[in-house]
Amino acid sequence: MTQNIYDDPDFFTQYSQFRRSVEGLDGAPEWPSLRAMLPPLAGAAVLDLGCGFGWFSRWARQAGAASVDGIDVSERMLARARTDTSDAAIRYRRADLESADLGVACYDVVYSSLVLHYIVDLDGLLGRVRRALKPGGSFVFSAEHPLLTAPEVAAWAEGPVWPLTNYLVEGPRRMHWLVDGVVKQHRTLGTTLTLLIRNRFTLAAIEEWRPTDEQIAAHPEWTIELHRPMFVLVGCRV
Amino acid sequence: MTQNIYDDPDFFTQYSQFRRSVEGLDGAPEWPSLRAMLPPLAGAAVLDLGCGFGWFSRWARQAGAASVDGIDVSERMLARARTDTSDAAIRYRRADLESADLGVACYDVVYSSLVLHYIVDLDGLLGRVRRALKPGGSFVFSAEHPLLTAPEVAAWAEGPVWPLTNYLVEGPRRMHWLVDGVVKQHRTLGTTLTLLIRNRFTLAAIEEWRPTDEQIAAHPEWTIELHRPMFVLVGCRV
Predict the structure, then answer these.
(1) b/e B147-181 (16+ beta carbons within 10 angstroms → b)
(2) Interatomic CA distance for residues B86 and B34, integer angstroms
(3) Which domains are assigned to chain A?
């Protein structure tokens, strides 16, 4: 089972104060790039893997989706998602993505934001996503970039430089992120893309996210982010 | 025009002593992985972009290729390639890959080893490779991994750690590599893959190369290479 750190009270309190937790999609700087990878959602059946507070699920409905299934392992996040949602076409469900039954050929679009780096059996999940998509369907996701999950201690060093180690050593990383003992699964970008290809996805867009010039002008402190990408964004089709 | 550093006498003398220059493909640790991405070559018309001393061109003929065109910008390398080759089905030609005419639908396989990180207009070259391939043809290449071309000074720091900087700042890098003033073109892995997709290649294999356990056992000093990949290997189809 995936570690359910989001139900840790201390973690949850801190995470709830993140800009993306308060403002939703517009508080996530990578959202415009991820949105651009999505197909038109009008009439689409959508699956939101790791739906959290339900921001994307509600946005998808506003963008015309016929229905949205949101799945998350965190009871606390789902409780807030249900409180914030009044739309019978959005169904939230608690499940562990390591094993959740996603159905067969029932979705036009599967979406996942910053979840896949927690998944131990990514090959298995991608196989279930592949089967859950209708022919011609799309899978669009973001994940933490492996340059962040590679080092034992992921922190800037003097320079600033990003002191990269162990990029090619895949496996779990236990780190301090808001609280101690958060476990992320490190795998190279090459491995993630290879697993997609093996599961018969056609890669359509791959972006190592960087802040735009406009975002850097508005947040000069983000200049440091040019040294290494925080996120990888991928769009693919079946 | 691409910088032609391989015709610099000092560079050429040093490069000629590299294990891969003396032993050929078997002296290149990434060769088994790259070879595994190639389709069967029996009867194939092959293009070797940046053929250097001609090691791959000759190997391709031994693997059954009907003909091989080898292109390189370096007169010195082509002179040795011609000396080392006695096979009328291998044609060497001097040309700048930034602008070389590669023909239309005339090759089954295009191969390129450690050349694309010198190319300024990669989009233009990929377009010409795309047009040069017959339907169903393959393009298989290696390039220096962008984690090596990103920093102004590409060298290990104490730890060891790989002090990454400027990964998201694309453009030329002037560095010391055997001699001063070698110019490489830094672009992210995401950009290279996006340019392939835009030029209508279907990505089939993407590997951030790591030494195998057997290679590390034979060369314990290669353990450091696990901190960051030296090469990216890509196989794609049209």
Answers:
(1) bbbbbeebeeeeeebbbbbbbbebeebebebeeee
(2) 25
(3) 5-237 (3.40.50.150)
Task: Give chain B positions within 8 Å (CB) of A167.
Answer: 147, 162, 208, 226-229
Which of B193, B224, B230, B233 to mutate to probe the A interface, most A CBs <10 Å?
B193
β partners of residue A133: A107
CB contact under 8 A, A226 and B190: no
Other Cβ atoms closer than 10 A to A219: 12
In this predicted model, what pLDDT tens digit does every residue of A141-174 receive, in sequence order? 999 999 999 998 889 999 999 999 999 999 999 9
Can you list the residues of chain A whose pLDDT is less than 70? 1
Determine the 3-state secondary structure of A214 from DSSP: helix
Residue of A nearest to B189 (CA): A208
**pTM of the prediction?**
0.96
Interface touch B167/A206, C-beta < 8 Å: no
Q: What is the pLDDT of residue A1?
A: 64
State both tokens at B50.
Answer: 């940046």
Distance CA B227, CA A169 (A): 8
Task: Scan for tokens 């000069």, then name that residue.
Answer: A220
Q: What is the pLDDT of residue B1?
A: 63
Could you check whether the bond before residue B160 is cis, i.e. omega within 30 degrees of 0? yes
pLDDT grade for B3, boundaries at 50, 70 and 90: confident
Quote the Cα angle for B31-B15-B51, to 5°. Answer: 50
With residues binned 3-state (H G I as helix, E B as strand, rest as coil), the percentages for chain A, rounded to 5, are: 35, 30, 35
Nearest CA in chain B to A197: B204
- Which positions in chain A touch B169 (Cβ < 8 Å)? 226
Q: Which residues pair with A92 in a beta bridge?
A: A70
Nearest to B203 by CA among B189, B221, B219: B189
A210 touches chain B (CB under 8 A): yes
Tell me what pLDDT residue B153 has: 83
Is A177 part of the contact surface with chain B (CB cutoff 8 Å)?
no
pLDDT confidence bin for B156, thresholds 50/70/90? very high
The answer to whether residue A188 neighbours chain B at the CB level (below 8 Å) is yes
pLDDT tens-digit readout, B75-86: 999 999 999 999
